[in-house]
Fold these 2 entries.
Entry 1:
Amino acid sequence: MGEFEVHRVRFFGLVPAGVRCLACQPRGARLALARTDGAVEIYNCSANYFQEKVIPGHETRSVEALCWAAGERLFGAGLSGDITEYDLAGLRVARSLHGSGGPIWSMAANSSGTQLAVGCEDGSVKLFQVIPGGIQFERNLDRRKGRILCLSWHPSGTHIAAGSIDIFRVLDVSSGQTVQRVMVNYHVQKVKRECVVWSIAFLSSGTVVTSDSFGRVQFWDWERGTLQESHTVSTSSALSLAVSEKEDSIIVGTSTGATYQFQLLPVRMGSLEKRWVRTKPFQHHTHDVRAVAHSSTALISGGLDAQLVIRPLMEKVQKKSYDAALRKFTFPHRRLVSCARKARLLLFQFSQHLELWRLGSTDETGKDGEVLPLRRMPEHLVQLKSKGPEHIYCSCVSPCGSWVAYSTASRFHLYRVQHKGDSVSIKKVPKVPKLLLPAYQLQFSANSSSLFVASSRGSVHVLQLLEPGGCRHLHTLRPPSESPEAVYLLAASADGHWLAAVGGDWMIHIYNLKCSKHHCTVPTYSCAVTALAVHPLTNNLVIAYSDQQLFEFSIPEKQYTAWSRTVQSCGLHTVWLERDSPITHITFNPKNPSHILLHDTYMFCVLDKSLPLPDNSALLMNQSTLKQLPETARQRQLHAFKICKKFQPLLFADLLDEKCLVMVERPIMDIKTQLPLPVQQKKFGT
Amino acid sequence: MARRLKAAAGKRGPPAKRGPPAALLGPPSSEDEADEAPEQVSFGVAKEAAETQRKLVGEAARRHRELLKEKRRRRQELFAEQKKRKLLPEAVLQELTAAPPAGTDGQTAAATPGKCHGGDAPKQRKGKIQRQGQAQRRVKKDKQRKRGARSKGNYTAVCLKEHGLTGLHQQLAKDFLNTHLYGPDTNRVQANEFFSLENKKNPVKKAAVQFVDKSWGQEKKQRAARFKKRWLATQMKNRV
């Protein structure tokens, strides 16, 4: 693997926001997720649960409910009282309508996706029609006192169940009247607290399922207003519930971080009578589980500990493969750190500010595994606060360390950084060319003379950076076929000749920068691209896909390289393909042209193209065993993948120079101690 | 003299606590020094003296109370005056409440770009004080503008979204969530306690997760850092 001095960075204080809402696309493969800071993310379930789209949040935006309607359209509503439609191609808020009922607590679409019901603070349920240009207010249903915290449509679309405090109501959609009002709290011994119905579901059999703040899941017959079954799952609140499409399985999330599955099972073998039984308990989260979803094959839960957990159901999975594994996502699937190699600077992107740090240095050397004392400590040089309430989309620092750029939904900022000895001064570049914002990705060229701005509709703007501090729009590169999706990844070659851009339609376009024309397109693949990079010497484009496949495409020859074809014919090792997190950064070692360095959240790998590829019988992570073998035996067992799992969870890894690596880690415990308070769990003997 | 005073005080008893006896209130020169026996004062006289004494003290207290009352009243009046001064004269407000012509409307809108708050100024007289204050400010600005010449020509009038009530509703909603999720009944515990349980129960005991709290001695550390910077700077200057 080589000997490297590793700068182990743990001062990136990223605290991801907790998961607030989850929504499975009814007849599609996408999962929408909303966080407490207003950010909305889309995960593609068929592309190995890759986080393909991210819409950053807003200071005033709070999302309390998220739902898919009319197939591909995503709507959200929050405490600001607005119903917003998200533009998934342009990654921004498309339009928003103020539902004048005060803060909106819940929203649900009917099974055909044509109507939206919204539950407001003032106790009214409002109906909106989903029309091609947006949504239109239809009418108000019966309004009673008490905020509507949860809503559910009956699958036929004739009735709506609305949960409030101490009661839940069933409304008839056509007449708008409340046809049943059921009190939820008369079974509790000491009724000092009010019983909050946190979530509700309406089954087609006429059963209403409620989960409340006493930790109970109750099944009601709404027509008679009677309680059929009551299960106490927890001593703290049961905050969320979701029903499967076949209505035979329910997932419930609680305040303690535990999730439970209820299944409709026959009372005796072969009996026709069925009962709801609490079958599986899970403890995947440490904090409140405020969002759950039930897809056709998996139980999905998102907690305030910022984790998204996908638990496939064994009985639904066809074969025992990696599909049946538990998936946990805490960190975003894109880079939040950029590195200026020559200046040894790191730029950290937070949701509303940027931090520029200079790495420390040491004079000593040591043996493998030794911790070297620092002669100079890492220094926090600049903190740039983004003006306005919008969150940052992307940021970048130039390789020489003298330019910093970032973009929010409506503003683009470029700064010139001057290094005077040890201190740093930063100045804003005043006249930035007017581009169609937001910028989805920013990338400086290798010689820091131009800035590439990824924009909507597949286009990339090329800006020329002028000394001493100016910027000029050179031209815009467009793909040959029109695409509504935005570009989300960029890679520039070291000689400044080529630029690769990936859009939301998963097409990789390569542009020739010398003549500003489209050069070629990489053959389409059925998965999303998670990282790409251009080799400085050979101009080969290395691509990592979300299903963990690796390709190498030669740009001058416009075809895959021989090595790439070998990899595809041999196939990658199963342990490599069964990794949880996607590769987010690829880089190269100029001194060793056959090396490719890549990393994902849990490992760092140096891929040596000159060595043979491992087959499935060989051990993939063999670095520790190789160290103990004598030289001759080592030569026999060497293979191309040299993996190090010492540093995890990794947010970023890069090569500073031929002997120096930087690894940005974020220990999970550091995040968990900064989250809101968890519920106490009484353990025996403490 | 002192002995005589003491004796006199002793003879009189409780009423004398109120003050010096009536005999001493009189001019001392009338009494002879040294050899004369203390004056014989009858009970009735003494009682009267005590009464007058009490009355005087009562008067003094009453005057003091009156003074305070007067002060308070003056203060209230001052406040009322200041409040009234902030508002425009009744006449102008009455005029505005009556149908404002389209011309003035346009002018008020144009004269306060960005200060418009989604409602007419007159309507908000019944609203909150801040809204009222803002409305008055708006109209005042208008008056000022009318007096002087219009200096700037390029501006656009925008009507901002009404923030007053929605902010309040949002805050109430957030408070509701907080009380029900993190309120007194919810059995929440500190992160340190929650995560350190495992460390303590392991066969190999480890320290708590937040064994050292980074916020301890924060101010001292900051002061030390600043001092170090200053000292280094002076050292560099002296050396150079």
Entry 2:
Amino acid sequence: MGIMNTRQQTKIIYSWYGKPTSSDRKLRTLQYKGIIIKSERTRTEKCIQLGEFVLIEGENADRPFVAQLLDLYEDGAQQKHAVVQWFSHITEIPQNKRKLLKREVSCQEVFFDQVSGYDNDIAVETIIESVLVIPLHPKEELPITLNKEKIFYVKQSWDGKCFKALSSDTFSKLKEANRKGDGVPNSLNSFVPLDISSMKEETKKVARSVMKTKNVEVEIESKHSASKSSLSKERHSQRVANGIKTPTARKKLQLNSMYMAIFCPFGFECSMFRASSFLGSLNSGNTVFLASLSKLWDYLPKTHAISVFYSLLNMIESNQKEDFLSSSDGSYSSSSEEEDSDVLCSPEKRTKASRTFSIPKSSRKPSVHTPAKTPKKTSLPGTPKTPRNATPEIPRRSHAAQKPASMLEEARLRLHVSAIPESLPCREEEFQDIYNFVESKLIDGTGGCMYISGVPGTGKTATVHEVIRCLQQAAENDDVPAFEFIEINGMKLTDPHQAYVQILELLTGQKVTATHAATLLAKLFCTPGPKRKTTVLIVDELDLLWTRKQNVMYNLFDWPTQKHSKLIILAIANTMDLPERIMMNRVASRLGLTRMSFQPYTYKQLQQIISSRLNSVKAFEEDAIQLVSRKVAALSGDARRCLDICRRATEICEFASQKNIPEIVRMAHVTEAIDEMFSSPYISAIRNASLHEQIFLKAILAEFRRAGVEEATVQQVYHQHISLCRMEGMQSPTVSDIMSICSRLGACRLLLVESSNKYLHMRVRLNISQDDVMYALKDE
Amino acid sequence: MSKRKSKESISTNGECISQVQKVLRERLCYHYATGKLFGIEHQYRHLLELLKRTTIHGESNSALIIGPRGSGKTALLNHVLKDLMEIKQVKENLLEVRLNGLLQTNDKVALKEITRQLRLENVVGDKVFGSFAENLAFLLEALRKGNRTSSCPVLFILDEFDLFVHHKNQTLLYNLFDISQSAQTPVTVIGLTCRRDILELFEKRVKSRFSHRQIYVLNSFDFKQYVKIFKEQLSLPADFPDETFAQKWNNNVQHLSVDKTVNDVLQSLFHYTKDLRSLHFLLMLAVSNVTVHHPLITASDLQEASKQYRMDSKANIVHGLSVLEICLIIAMKHLNDVYEGEPFNFQMVYNEFQKFIQRKAHCMYNFEKPVVMKAFEHLLQLELVKPIEKPSVRTQREYLLMKLLLDNTQIMDALQAYPNCPTDVKQWATSSLSWL
């Protein structure tokens, strides 16, 4: 965790190790045998050579990928590339395939990846650090180790369809790679002397990590090859002797040594912590270990040894109190002032950090939809914050929902817009087009955009979802490569820039600010790299993502055009000419010309939709369905409207037949429902208005006729009103009455009125046609 | 003995009266869902069925209740909810969220309020923290997780619904309607509004997602029913402690409802507006007159209340003006007559006033110009006169163009009622040429 975090913040320089080993004139590439990763902040340098195993940055910073370096080269554009052999973690394997294993898989186990879909050419910048991958025979138990983040085991290979045991060829190659890289058997011998020799050289730089400079490298190699130095030989023989005595402890010790060999490149302070944490679990073989430790003690300069033991002490204290340790306690306190404070406090801090980190990692679900909260955001003490791990949930109901009892209720349930039909009728062509588009992109492993338009309620989103569902089904059956599906909706964002945040959260579970999310996503989609599945992104209500600079749209449509993005975007909006109307040329150009428009449904299609939804439920007369379809098709072709009318018609039908006689929806019910939804409410509003309100409307008409202008002030209308009242022999209202009548009519929008502070001089207009008013007033 | 008896009766009477006041005032002020609904039985049934289906079957819906102010939209909804809550299955299964367009003026506030009322897990105490985006994502996630059969249905009641339409992008409405049209937590969105053109205000995607159920509440009752409502609102309930007094009171109310004057008062109010709230207001004024010595409402009480209620507010202000101010108003009236409603300025008014003074110097004291200006500014403050443009630094006060906010009829009526008005002024008011 600590390492990865700092990666994001500090600059890291990648440089080649050594001279190019070979070059290709034609491709203008230069090949190298190793790479040096130099971190500016911690000022450490690490060298990783071909054949070594590395962690590769993935889209989720908490879940790096494991790979083996096969080739390192620089292309013509001076970009550093690496060719890798991937290893898959269990979380990368689709849920439904995991059961093929028929066993529990520890988080340390990885699978030799033989899936063809992944790009194995990555940018060198995505390499995090080296790790160890140890091949095991299928029957072998996983050895128990502590350093779960740095050691992986491989037993089987995974080719996207099934798991196989490692072929003997691969097995030996992997074994070989381990020997070559860190040299498991040799490390024990080389580790201690190396550390000590380097320490002796730089005793002043206590807090600094071990620098693996070139001459050190040479030193290692000499020792590796010879392993005849008297020191290492002595160590070796001692270990062997120990191992013979207690065979159970020996295995662990070997692991330990191997493990120390790995952490040695990462620096001294780190290694001390690792050693201490390792020791914590080593209760059974404690004495043996301590014995070997005491040897270590002899070789290390006092100050370092003290800090080592300080951290060890923390771990062991509770279990075992040995004289040896208590005596070192005193020496520790005496020399503590000399220590760099960083070293002193780091072990404890780090244990905490690693603990908090490991818990969510093991419990993290692979599903991208669960909004996992990253543990790195800690709330400030004192200020109440939103509970971090609040689960968004609506309380459950205490009584179960009732099942539909009658046929009409059943029909109503099926006709609800939310009911997912078995199939989507009338959109077969569009479905096929979208399906083919996405499928081809998936198979090619490329990216692309498609723009889908159509008026509301024509099944755009439903069709796209259906396509995704079918593709997911196909992916499960291994017909198409597996892909990741995410969806954003412009209307469900508070701000266009929130799109980045949502996409990143859906992809990786990280929660960051919009600007940060944008950079992370750009990095994710634009750098060649880390093995990723193709992402299918649905952007619903695209027009809402419009900003003045259009950078959100620009980025969204730019990513798929990047070589390595593997991003397929399906953009949905209402208007057909959206790209021409609101997008700048550079955005519209990137959107491309793959467009599709959904035509409003015709009445036949609507009829088919209703019938297919009703399926076998005979709740509607055939003519009734046709009436609804024709009516809606003539108005808008909105399927939602159509279904709503049908639903309302079933209710009306139910009202009408109270006597439990099963009835089906007839023309009359449908007509009533249509009238209810489409009738103009103004006429009835005028008819139900009070007498003076009606006279006021008449006065307005009279004033309009008098002035010849369709606008009048209240004062003018007032005079007309009074004369009308006189004609009918009624008491004339006061100006206050008239004002309130006017504002009441204005509130229901029968009238359009100005702001009321002009009082008598406020201008009034009718919001409906004069004919409608006359018609409404005449009948009475 | 008899003295004590009368005292006792007065004390019990006093208690009775305060009881009456309490019962009736509560009824008239809070619009409790008491009594019957008038003319909206059909709407009542529609809404009741709708909400029943939401709670019992978990069916999502959306509906608008549309009707003019005071037509009983909220009363209808409260009535339905009260009756619904009597069903045990409903009571335990319904979450209610009430929003008001006047309080939740933007989506950010509205979202926090929804989250608070739903008591989701990101509510700390009574507060909701986090950004707008976080809250929206959280709420949508919460609602998406639910499904028809197992989640508790949520009833959203949006009062002053038309104000939500003006929120940016109509995000809240889109999301609420979208949830009501998709297989998520069952929700029912009920909007209350008085605007009839509400559907035209929806954005097209929002409109498509709205189910187009509109329940119209119109005051469709006639005068007979109006009188019945009057009777019902004023009658004491059967569980009133003092039965004999209740009997007496109710008899009196029955008597009032057939009284000619009362009918006239009601008729005039009914013609003016069918809004039940104004009837309540009228009754409230009348009920406030009830005291121990005047235990029953009389027809004159109602008449008085009606007079008080339907007073012309601007003309009323004129009654309290000084003679000088009245003179200025009359001058303005003449200017209006001469120039046909064109705006005037102080100088013109002053000149007109001077003309009058010169003719009838004996009856009016000739005020200095600054004094007249002061009087004019008082009229300005009372908003009887209104400048047609904002006063700027450059234009002098005397030449600022003004308009009179009184009608001629109002001025003449006010003058009739004005006490101790000099005859010359009255004459001048009727005609600017009276001296000829």
